[in-house]
Amino acid sequence: MNTSKIAWSVDNLAILGAPPVFVEPLHVGRPNIGNREVLLRRIGDIIDRRWLSNNGPVVREFEQRLAQFLGVKHCIAMCNGTIALEIAIRALELHGEVIVPSYTFVATAHALQWQAITPVFADIDPATHNLDPSAVERMITPRTTGIIGVHLWGRPAPIETLQELAKSHKLQLMFDASHAFGCTYGGRSIGQFGRCEVFSFHATKFFNTFEGGAVVTNDDELAKKMRLMKNFGFSGYDNVIYSGTNGKMTEVCAAMGLTGLESLDEFVVVNKRNYHAYRDALQGMPGLSLIRYNESERCNYQYIIIEVGVDFSLTRDELIQVLHAENILARKYFWPGCHDMYPYRAYYPHASMLLPNTNAIAAHGIVLPTGTAVEPETIKTIVRIIRSAAANPGRVRLAIQSIAK
C-alpha cells in the first residue's frame, strides 16, 4: 500500500477508529525464497530420482557447501534446529546442570530439559542482550557440565570470555547460533567456535530450508557421533552401533537451502537497507532506542529490535496495541523469559531475583517487521505511526482503556 501521500495526524491511527493502514497483516518476517525457478528445477530432479530422504545427494551437497561457506570441517544437516540442539547436547555427553540465558527462544532450554538436564539461567548484558560472563560464573556449581551461549539477534555472544570460563572450570561450551547464520566475530564465521555450534533453518530465519537445522564442528569424533545419532545409530546397512533418533534432513529441504545459499547476498542487501531505513527514521525519538549492529563485521541484519524506555510516552505494551491495530504484527521477543514459562516458573519460582537485566529487556523490547517482503516506504509508514502515537499518548491511552472495557 502506498502511504506516502497520507497527511499524517493522530486521527489516522486505527487505535482511534481509523481504518488500518495495512489491509493484510504485516508480519515480523516472511520467508526468504531465493530463485523460484531454480528451486522448482531442483525439486523436479529430486522427484525424478525418487530419492527423497536418507542422506541423498542434495543433502550431501548442502552439507559440503555449508561447511565450505562457514569454514568448518563438518556440517551435519538435521530435520530442525531443536533436534540439532538435542543431538549436540547428547553428543557432548552433557548432564547435571548446563548454564543458558533465559532471554532466548524456549527451545534452548527445552532441549536440555527434554533430556533430564537442568537448565540454569544466567543473566544477560543489557547492552548486548547476550550472556553476561560474570553472571555465568556466579551460576557454576559442582553439578555444572556445560555452557550454551546464544548469539542473539545475530550479534556474537562473548565468545572469548566464555571460552576462558569453560576452560578454567573444565566445562563443555557450545553455541546456539540460530540467529547468526552468515555473521562473523573477529572476521571469523559464526560456526567456528566452541565444541560445536547449532543453526536453525526454520522458515522465519534469515536462511531457511523450509524447516531444518544443522550442527557444525571441527571435531572429527563429535561429528562422527552426531552422524550416527541422527540416523538411529546405523553404520551401513543393518548395523546399529549407537543409540540414536531420526534427525535427518529431507532432499527437498536441502534443495531449498542450496537455493537460498545462492541468494544470500541479496537477502543481506535488503535487510541492511531496511536496518538503515529504521535507524534513520527513528533517529532522535526520545525514549526509543534501536539495537545497533557492528557493521565492521559481516551481519545478516535479520532483526529490527527497539527498546521502549521508561521515558517514552507510551508503554511497550501500549505501543504494541497501536501497531497491531494497524495490522503491523510487531512481537515481544523473548517475552517472558524462559524462567517465567512452564515448567521453569514452577521449578525456579525465585529465578527473577537473579535475572534483573533479563526481566528489564524482556519487558521493553519490540521486534519490528523487516526482510525481503518489506519496502522502505513501509518502514516510513511504521515509524510515522509510532511518532503519531508517541505525540498523543493521552488520546491513545484512553482509546486502549475503552477497548479493554
Give an account of the 3D structure:
- The chain is α/β, with parallel strands linked by helices.
- It folds into two domains: 10-31 and 264-330 and 369-404, Aspartate Aminotransferase, domain 1; 36-262, Aspartate Aminotransferase, domain 2.
- Helices cover 38% and strands 14% of the residues.
- The protein is built from 14 helices and 14 strands.
- It has helices spanning 36-49, 57-70, 81-91, 107-113, 133-139, 159-168, 220-229, 251-262, 264-282, 316-325, 344-347, 356-364, 376-391, 393-404, and strands spanning 26-27, 74-78, 97-101, 118-122, 144-150, 172-176, 184-185, 188-189, 196-200, 213-217, 288-290, 304-308, 328-329, 365-368.
- The strands form four sheets. It has a seven-stranded mixed β-sheet with strand order 2-10-9-6-5-3-4, with helices on both faces.
- It is globular, with a radius of gyration of 22 Å.
- The protein starts with 25 loop residues before the first strand and ends with a helix.
End-to-end gap:
32 Å
Order of helices and strands: EHHEHEHEHEHEEEEEHHHEEHEHHEHH
Mean pLDDT: 96
State which percent range the strand residues make up: 5-15%
- In the CATH hierarchy, what is the class of the largest domain? Alpha Beta
Helical content band: 25-40%
| Low-pLDDT segments, ≥5 res | none
Spell out the blueprint of helices and strands.
Layout: E1 26-27, H1 36-49, H2 57-70, E2 74-78, H3 81-91, E3 97-101, H4 107-113, E4 118-122, H5 133-139, E5 144-150, H6 159-168, E6 172-176, E7 184-185, E8 188-189, E9 196-200, E10 213-217, H7 220-229, H8 251-262, H9 264-282, E11 288-290, E12 304-308, H10 316-325, E13 328-329, H11 344-347, H12 356-364, E14 365-368, H13 376-391, H14 393-404
Parallel strand pairs: 1-13, 3-4, 3-5, 5-6, 6-9
Antiparallel strand pairs: 2-10, 7-8, 9-10, 11-12, 12-14
Helix pairs in contact: 1-8, 2-8, 3-4, 9-13
